[in-house]
Amino acid sequence: MTLARPLDQTREIASIDPILGLTRADMDRVNALILSMAGSNVELIPEIAEHLISSGGKRLRPILTLASALAFGYRGENHVKLAASVEFLHTATLLHDDVVDESDLRRGRKTARTIWGNQASVLVGDYLLGQAFKMMVEVGSMRALAILSNASAVIAEGEVWQLSAAKQMSTTEADYMAVIGAKTAALFAAAAEVGPVIAGAGADFEAAMRDYGLHLGLAFQLVDDVLDYGGSADDLGKNVGDDFREGKITLPVILSYAAGNEDERAFWREAMENGHNDDAALARARDLLARHGALEATKARAREHGRLASQALSVLPAGPHREALDAVVAFSIERIR
Question: Is the pTM of this model over 0.70?
Answer without folding.
Answer: yes
